[in-house]
Amino acid sequence: MKRWLVIITVISMMLLISVSLAFGEAKISLDFWAQGEPGAVSIYNTLADQYMRLHPNVSISITYMGSELFPPGLIPALKAGKGPDIFGAGTGPGQPAAIIEAKLVADLTPYYFKYHWDKIIPPTIVNYTSSDGKLWAVGDSVEHTGMMYNKEIFAKLGLKIPNSYDEFIKVVDKVKTAGYKIPIGLGGMDKWPISHWQSMLFGYFAGPKGIDNVMFGEGRWDQPEFIEASRLFQKMANEGYFGPNPLSVGYTEVMDDFWAGKIPMTFTGTFVINDAFTKLGDEGLRKFGVFLFPPLKGQKIYPTEDIGAGWYISKSCKNPEVAADVINFFLFRHESRKQLLNSGLVPVGPIRDLLKEVKIPSLLAEFFEVVDRYRHNGTIHAYLDTVEPDNVTQVTYDGLQALIAGKMTPEQFVGEIQKEWEKAKAEGKILKPGGVIKPSGIK
Amino acid sequence: MKYLRFPEWVNVLFFLTPAVVLYIIFVIYPTLGLFQISFTSWDGISPIKLWVGFANYKELLFSDEIFWQAFKNTVFWAVISLFLNVFIGLVMAFLIAEPIKGKLYFQLAYFLPTVQAGVVTAIIWRWMYQPDGVINSFLRAVGLGIFTQGWLGSFNLALPALAIAGSWMSIGVNIVIFLGGIQNIDPALYDSAKVDGANRIQLFRHITIPSLRPTITTVTILTIIGSFKTFDIVWATTQGGPIRATELLATYMYKRGMLEVQYGLGCAMAVFLILVVTIFSTLYSFQQKKEV
Questions:
Q1: Total domains present in chain B
Q2: Which of A34, A99, B142, B210 is in the most buried spot, having the most CB atoms within 10 Å?
Q3: Is B45 on the interface with A (CB under 8 A)?
Q4: Is B245 within the bounds of a domain?
Q5: Cα–Cα distance, A301 to A146 (Å, whole number)
Q6: By residue range, what is the domain housing residue B226?
Q7: Considering the domain boundaries, does residue B14 fall inside one?
């Protein structure tokens, strides 16, 4: 009897070991290099845990790469074939175009139709994540920029949200008279915050079609509308709208002073809300509001919109089907989209229905409200610097600082941009017209 | 007990080989690769490396104004760094070599910034240089409010301001090197000079400096190399701004090479940098040897 017991025990243990080994071998590991600071974007960890619970044979490991759109370690890793399976990165020309041409990323077109992303992602966004009829990346979030303001300061000074540029001037003058050294925080030392202004003003003066005409057509950056937009920006800087030393102050310092109530207004994006929500809570955020920049005579109000980053599947990924399923789970599943919104990240595509089901920071809700109010006019870029080739971006950054310092005229500024644009165009480094073509065989 | 004896050259070879192999793999091979890529229009990603001969060098040397501005800024940075790291560093080392009270704390205080990461130093100084930062607050507090500036936003002051911050980070090591050198000087030299009536300045000028000549040469060369390599403190504060006023060769190389995906051009810049530093360091070493 005892012998039988020993034999049965040994056999069952061997069976158990072999079964677990078999499962162990079948386990699919996915490396995901996400953008953001560790701890700041914890929602992805939550979603990964949920996915792994539903798919015990899949293991997702997330590495946060910081906020750079193309961290230097990414390309060598991709080229070595030992990089991530899924990664977040920029979607404009330059590096994204080069990694596509070098065939380092997988074509997502089949998944675009398989998971019906075509019903969710707006064509304006597909334009910037596709080329040659193929989809290469999926936008991870949508961002808008707007004029954030301190409601308490506005109430104290008896100010109302300006509806025209003339009213806006009056608001700034009153703020200046009230003793605020910096009426509108800029953070010019960091360069990129200035390009938020450039993106918005270029869009206001040229309209969405005018911008697309330059990006994808024969339009030029040295057209009169861009000169006028630059002139207005320079005038605002000269008149002290951004304070006496806009190039000496960094973005972090500006935002600290803005949340502390020392700066009444700042033109920035929805990306700041998540962090501010963590620090101030919703009660703290209620002190702040947002309005879109008021139009000059004859202009329309255009909301700004761009994606945060694109999610790619690397060519060396051994399980692209699973990777695509993970992306679909993270960004397109109803429940995940609710969770993303709750954490302050706005998923790409329609969110109106989702908003009824979630409790988002009040400032973010206000942002959506003002954007929706003017969406029918069409949208313009929030971050032109992320969709232009980098040689253009660098010249733009320096030129914007030069405009503020009065060391360049608006004509010279747009002339420099156009020169670099032509160079990039000649080298094939500008964005190619996007749009996805349905491959044959896919219903 | 008998020991197996190898010829001398076998022993030498045995001990040298690992270091030489590592040096070839990790230094010589990548450096040669750098030279090779500098003759191509490679974007750093594509499998195709198109040979363009000297085109990258031609572009840099003859048609890129920003490159020359970055070069001038780097030389200016090196000059400030040399003054602070070599001259001030030497004086500081001379002063704390004396048996003074709390000597160890002084040494620690000077050395502390050296162990900090460059980015941390950058963040500290970025904060100090803000219009409402501690430097302007101090100036206002002592009645020198007219000298307050938007330091890092000023076209003329941003570069020296950052060079001072950079030297603050590196001066500690140099003080330690000088201190080591001073402590090796025969005290009898100082004693006899004192008997002859030499004051402290004369001791410094006629004994310390000549005795430390080889150390000064080393620190000078290290400072020049360090200046030409400076990247982190500028990148974490001004990114070369305002309007390229703080653009250094290393930051410009990063922009052109990495951000604009022009590895070939970036490598050409790196080769230029290597050549300049090598030529300068060699000339300086020869000059110093001649004087000795």
A1: 1
A2: A99
A3: yes
A4: yes
A5: 11
A6: 64-291
A7: no
Chain B residues touching A104 at Cβ < 8 A:
45
Are the CB atoms for A311 and A88 separated by under 8 Å? yes
d(CA B137, CA B149) in angstroms, rounded, equals: 11
Nearest CA in chain B to A90: B259
Q: Do the chains contact at B150 and A248, CB–CB below 8 Å?
A: yes
| pTM score, whole prediction | 0.85
Fill in the DSSP letter of residue A65: -
What are residue A294's phi and psi, to 5 degrees?
-70, 150
Cα–Cα distance measured from residue B37 to residue B44, given in angstroms and rounded to the nearest whole number: 9
Cβ of A249 within 8 Å of Cβ of B130? The answer is yes
- For A409, which DSSP code? -
Cα torsion at A230, A231, A237, A239 (round to 10°)? -160
Does any domain span residue B11? no
Which of B151, B260, B262, B263 best tests the A interface by mutation, with the highest count of A CBs <10 A?
B260
Walking along chain A (443 residues) 10 residues at a time, the average pLDDT comes out as: 69 66 69 78 90 96 82 83 90 76 91 93 84 90 94 96 95 96 95 96 95 90 97 97 94 94 96 85 93 92 91 95 97 93 85 85 90 90 89 95 96 97 87 78 68
- Is A31 an 8 Å CB contact of chain B? no
Picking from B64, B51, B106, B84, the residue whose alpha carbon sits closest to that of residue B174 is B84
Q: Is B6 part of any domain?
A: no
What phi and psi values does residue A320 have, to the nearest 5 degrees?
Answer: -60, -30
What ipTM is given for this predicted complex? Answer: 0.83
